[in-house]
Specification:
The complex is a heterodimer of chains A (325) and B (473).
Chain A lengths: L2 E3 H15 L3 E5 L15 H5 L4 E3 L4 H13 L3 E5 L10 H8 L2 H4 L9 E6 L14 H5 L5 E3 L4 H12 L5 E6 L6 E3 L13 E4 L4 E5 L2 H15 L4 E5 L2 E3 L3 H11 L2 E4 L8 H13 L8 E3 L10 H7 L3 H12 L2
Parallel strand pairs in A: 2-3, 2-4, 4-5, 5-7, 6-7, 10-11, 10-13, 13-14
Antiparallel strand pairs in A: 1-8, 6-12, 9-11
Chain B lengths: L1 E4 L9 E7 L6 E2 L4 E6 L4 E5 L4 E6 L6 E3 L3 E7 L45 H10 L17 H13 L25 H9 L18 H9 L31 H16 L2 E9 L1 H5 L1 H8 L3 H15 L5 E4 L2 E4 L5 E7 L2 E7 L7 H16 L13 E5 L18 E15 L2 E15 L5 H16 L1 H5 L5
Parallel strand pairs in B: 12-14, 14-15
Antiparallel strand pairs in B: 1-8, 2-4, 2-7, 3-6, 4-5, 6-8, 9-16, 10-11, 12-13, 15-16
The chains are: A alpha/beta (325), B alpha+beta (473).
């Protein structure tokens, strides 16, 4: 199976789906002539022409509004926002129009809109350009939110998003674009709402997503050298998320550790934890541990920035705390 | 230290009045003794003692009106000093009223937390302790802030098991908690229909992503909704016998026997049994019996077990279970064996029996049977049989039919090998023929599947060379 990067996997998904379905169009800032700020849309304009792949003015609100309108008109837009940070100026379009319109029209229209946006910290871009905003989208009824951690999931999930009739927020991690992995040439879409057990283990369940999946895996390897056997679950889909897989795992290991890149307050880990308490309380041998991004604006200084992002040793410490070993 | 609380003597009782104490502080008391007369909103009733010990302190005297659940006295257990509790604030209350339903035969109920302070114990550890009959109040926790964790309970179980206390089961090597899978997600429209038509979600089979229940799934069930099944007949529904002392002696059956009676009734009533019988000419196998007995201690039961394991390997479709619309394909063969003990019939399970050699089967079966007779079986030794063998061959039985023992979908009833005319290759001779009758669950096994399985089983038993090939014999 060929090895390609996360970036190339997303590019492949766009190519394959645009060939399959002429209703798919791609637009955003610098996605056409410049082939994307992160080169994710490389070759698309050349292949599909400027009518299906085109640049927009620097207005995220306009991009999302146009995507919503295009979907109402029968197209299947796959819009790109340069980064998740800029989605904030389009929040009215996303929360107040895109997310609720299908409901408000009584389901008479489909809204097959995919908004791709990379995010995450760790590149010394300062507080304004280092957000992890997944919680803001996950909090919103009407949206589906995907966050692939691996190249194969990036391709499979984007294909699923492009075939979905509800609006999908497709989050990519800037730090994962160069991650390589095996990806099939032609592949079926992945299933939205389904987590992946990336590593089976008996002692504790570590739940991660996006870049944190890799932090969890690295922690699991360290734990193995300490004689502790951790299971690692990649949520992949943040809304809806795969409760059965998580509950079954925790009911087996009796210890749960959730890793999130975003700050802890009202976060993904809090949501996962409360669901664990509600569903498998009697199976818990310790409180659910959260390993979260710092509850602070992201610092610019490298050492401080690193201190604000969860690392494998934080996860190792949380697992050991939970296990009392 | 036990707390004696105001019991709830009727459903509507909120508080009770102590009419008169029958004991005083310092008195030794025994289980079943009457401690006091209590007036509920309905009647005056006697408060019985549930432990042996000594009354430490009476905190609510005659005439006191006390809310249900409030402490009225403290009691020291046998061997404890009758020290008055320093703090009378209640930490944990334990209803002193006898529960109406028979309680499970836990060896000893863990004492409630002493009034001195809360015990930090994880939910799972508490659950483990209760199921294993471990008194966690005596355990020192090794978790954060001294919390008792599952490992502490397992350690206690191991300690007790090493001390060979017969009533406590050793911990299983692996954590095998019963996991009730989380309920599948349901589409909102599906949930609305379920609510509107009062459909039991357990009857639904989700076809959406990851088993999500879609509206279509609910409609499908709604349209072919079966008539509510009649309640399984229990002997309670037959008129009670009126027996005089001259006619017979009557005793209450043990909890274990009652449970078994209920399960066997349910199995026979719920599982659609069908029966299929084959004969195996075991003449040649029995010719080697003396040799196999001398070499390995192998009996006919062991040979039938070996044949069953091999036949199941060729017919894995037999090794599965129907459960509430799900087909469970077992990854291992858990070979159940009906064992006669003083306490009655027990199905002991050889877990993961596939691929076992004959000497291994003999060793593990002997060990299981011995422990079954000594009542030393663990929960793991009884768990999830996937195929059960019942051998009555030693009692000159021509053939019989067994009741299934879920989750096993087959019980193989093995009869005696009896002298009978055998026609083979155009000739007739006197051989030893054994009748094998499989009781099968028709929900997962059909006649052809069962017949093919029996055919393979008989073939193995008729050809000792094939049977013993690769079986370490």
């Amino acid at each position: 199976m060929p090895k390609i990067t996360y970036r190339e996997a997303i590019n492949q998904a766009l190519f394959e789906e645009m060939h399959r379905d002429p209703a798919i169009i791609v637009f955003g800032e610098d996605v056409a002539l410049y082939e994307g700020s992160f080169k994710v849309t490389r070759g698309l304009m050349k292949e599909f022409g400027p009518e299906r792949v085109f640049d927009t003015p620097i207005s995220e609100a306009a991009i999302v509004g146009m995507a919503t309108g295009a979907a109402l008109g029968g197209l299947r837009p796959a819009a790109e926002l340069m980064t998740v940070n800029f989605a904030l100026v389009a929040m009215d379009q996303i929360l107040n129009h895109l997310a609720v319109m299908r409901y408000m029209f009584g389901g008479q229209v489909a809204l097959p809109v995919t908004i791709r946006m990379p995010g995450g910290g760790g590149h010394q871009l300062g507080a304004q350009h280092s957000h992890s905003l997944e919680v803001h989208f996950v909090h919103t009824p009407g949206l589906k939110v995907l966050y692939p951690a691996t190249p194969v999931d990036a391709k499979g999930l984007l294909k699923a998003a492009l075939r979905e009739n509800n609006p999908v927020i497709f989050l990519e991690h800037e730090g994962l674009y160069n991650l390589e992995g095996e990806v099939p040439g032609e592949m079926e879409p992945a299933q939205i709402g389904r987590a992946a057990v990336l590593r089976a283990g008996a002692d504790a369940t570590i739940i991660g997503y996006g870049a944190m999946t890799h932090v969890a895996l690295e922690a699991a390897r360290t734990l193995e050298s300490l004689g502790l056997d951790a299971e690692v679950i990649d949520l992949r889909s943040l809304r809806p998320w795969d409760k059965p897989t998580v509950m079954q795992s925790v009911a087996r290991t009796h210890h749960a550790i959730v890793v999130e890149e975003s700050p802890p307050v009202c976060g993904i880990a809090a949501e996962v934890a409360v669901n664990i308490y509600e569903n498998v309380f009697d199976q818990l041998d310790a409180p659910v541990e959260r390993v979260s991004g710092a509850d602070a604006p992201m610092p610019y200084a490298k050492n401080l920035e690193q201190a604000c992002i969860p690392h494998a040793e934080d996860v190792v410490a949380a697992v050991r705390k939970s296990l009392g070993r | 230290m036990y707390e004696i609380v105001m019991p709830r003597l009727s459903d509507s009782m909120e508080e009770g009045k102590i009419i008169k104490w029958k004991v005083k502080a310092g008195d030794a008391v025994h289980e079943g003794d009457v401690l006091a007369e209590i007036e509920s909103d309905k009647a005056v009733m006697e408060l019985e003692c549930f432990h042996d010990g000594r009354i430490a302190q009476i905190v609510q005297g005659d005439g006191a009106e006390v809310a249900v659940g409030q402490a009225i006295a403290y009691m020291a257990g046998a061997g404890e000093d009758a020290v008055t509790p320093a703090v009378a604030t209640q930490v944990e209350t334990k209803p002193a009223a006898a529960p109406a339903a028979p309680s499970p035969p836990a060896p000893q109920k863990p004492a409630p937390a002493p009034p001195e302070g809360r015990i930090a114990i994880s939910p799972y550890a508490r659950k483990l302790a209760d199921s294993r009959g471990i008194d966690y109040t005596k355990i020192k926790g090794t978790g954060p802030h001294g919390r008792i964790m599952a490992e502490d309970i397992e350690q206690a179980v191991r300690t007790v098991a090493q001390a060979r206390t017969p009533t406590i089961e050793p911990a299983p090597v692996k954590r095998t908690a019963e996991v009730r899978p989380a309920e599948p997600d349901m589409e909102p429209l599906a949930a609305a229909i379920v609510k509107r038509f009062r459909i039991d979600p357990a009857t639904l089979r989700g076809t959406g992503p990851h088993g999500m229940i879609l509206a279509d799934d609910v409609v499908a069930v709604l349209c072919v909704r079966p008539q509510p099944a009649a309640k399984p007949p229990a002997d309670e529904e037959l008129p009670a016998l009126e027996v005089s002392e001259e006619e017979a002696t009557v005793e209450e059956a043990s909890f274990r026997l009652k449970t078994q009676a209920r399960r066997v009734t349910a199995a026979k009533h719920v599982v659609p049994h069908f029966y299929i019988t084959a004969s195996a000419d075991v003449t040649r196998l029995l010719e080697r019996r003396g040799e196999l007995k001398a070499k390995f201690g192998a009996t006919v039961t062991h040979l039938v077990m070996l044949a069953s394991v091999k036949a199941l390997k060729a017919h894995p479709g037999i090794n599965r279970t129907w459960d509430r619309g799900r087909i469970i394909r077992w990854k291992h063969v858990n070979l159940g064996l009906a064992v006669e003990t003083e306490q009655g019939l027990i199905v002991a399970v050889l877990a993961e029996a596939e691929g076992l050699t004959l000497p291994e089967i003999v060793r593990r079966t002997t060990d299981l049977a011995e422990r079954a007779r000594e009542q030393h079986l663990t929960a793991g030794d009884r768990r999830h049989p996937t195929f059960v063998i019942s051998n009555l061959g030693m009692y000159d039985v021509e053939e019989f039919q067994a009741i299934l023992n879920p989750p096993a979908s087959v019980t193989l009833a093995v009869a005696s090998a009896q002298a009978a005319p055998v026609i083979r290759d155009g000739g007739i001779y006197v051989g030893k023929v054994m009748r094998l009758t499989a009781s099968c669950d028709h929900r997962v096994i059909d006649g052809v599947g069962a017949a093919r399985f029996l055919q393979e089983l008989a073939r193995l038993l008729e050809n000792p060379e094939t049977l013993l090939e690769g079986a370490g014999a």
